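Researcher: Can you fold this with F0G in place?
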Amino acid sequence: MRSYKAAMVEPVRLLAREDREAALREAGFNVFNLDSADVFVDLLTDSGTGTMSTAQWAALMEGDEAYAGSDSFRELRDAVRDVMGFEHLVPAHQGRGAENVLYGALVDDGDVVLNNAHFDTTRAHVAANGGEPVDCPVPEARDGDSDHPFKGNFDVDAAREVVDDVGAENVPAVVLTVTNNSMAGQPVSVANTREVAAFADQIDATFVVDACRFAENAHFVGRREDEFADCSVAAVAREQLSYADACVMSGKKDGLVNVGGFVGLRERGDLYEQCRQRGILYEGFSTYGGMSGRDMAAFAVGLREAVDPPYVAERVAQVEALADALADRGVPVYRPAGGHAVYVNANDALPHIPRGDYPGQAFVCELYREGGVRAVELGRFAFPGTDRDDLVRLAVPRRTYGPDHLEHVADTAAAVCERGEAVSGFEVVSEPAMPELRHFSAELRPVDAAETPSR
Ligand code: F0G
């Protein structure tokens, strides 16, 4: 049962099937190009798409829009100290702005950055600064049937091998992404966080936590890691983040706001000063960084709500209920469900589509055609050149949809699976220069399944 009621509503409509077909063609079979008015249930992302509380709307009215020394910045700084434990903060317009600030300061040509798995913008920022992003997920991460409780963990042994190869002096940063968005939204344990912190310390690298979904991660720790069975989400979050030298935060996730972000730092040393100057250059003065005062005011309240019971328990339960509804209808889902999203394995759902013909993107397009549902491919279309499974992410916006919407999503996904061989694969017809950002703007066309030679 949800512990809130709706105070404002936004209409949604399901277009007629032929209009959905036309919209999809018009979008070049890339759902990023669809108009949101043409989408019935939008599970493209959980980023900036959630519903704010009445307390957040009230705070927004009192935003202090001063260029320098804004009260709203102070409220945000205090919330970050209280909830996440970072004393110093460099504000940014969103997570990737914060990534630009931090990785631009940390990474030089030829460096290697280690991460349990880089999110696409993180990968792109490391690469844009001349670095090589290397993923070190635990082997269980790739197994959608394993019931390992922390499949988001970082494989320290694998990372050590990389360091032996490239030399510790070329590894300026070790990053832990909690939860691990690129690996099915799986959580990271505190035990693993401690190990990674010790490893980063040994090789003299900055230990960064990508904390976008820190509250969801803390919820899983409380449920799955014995040491924390009696701890609150707030206490686990503080403990887990206490090991990091720095964090990158997108307020659009566990900040419960539509926009905003920051770099959090423990010390006021050289790295803070470098980030502060880069922040002024790229984001805005150090007391707003691309956010309006009202954005920061709502963000400050959102951070506190994110660790306030029963919010996160209900949120994760809703995502788990979607995974169950899909599994009950025979849709192959990655288990356990992630904190913010359910991931469907398109290789299992549409086995007749050759891997080179983007079965994940085929599933995404068919979900829209069939029921006006928008999801995102996080497989070989989004991450070209990798050998990962073709996963389709159904990301659930926070405090937004009801059980009837998610039933519709499960029915739609089941109908896609039933269509089976009638669903064809795709080929890319145009793509941007930066492969890390391909899925945002590439265009595709269907490959006639009957004419496709098997590969
Ligand atoms: N890090 C992670 C783990 C993310 O999931 C995201 C964004 C970012 C950094 C960048 O933050 O969007 O505020 O610039 N993820 C969104 C998603 C876009 O759909 O998963 P941002």
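Model: Folded with F0G in place. The CA atoms of residues 136 and 376 lie 23 Å apart.
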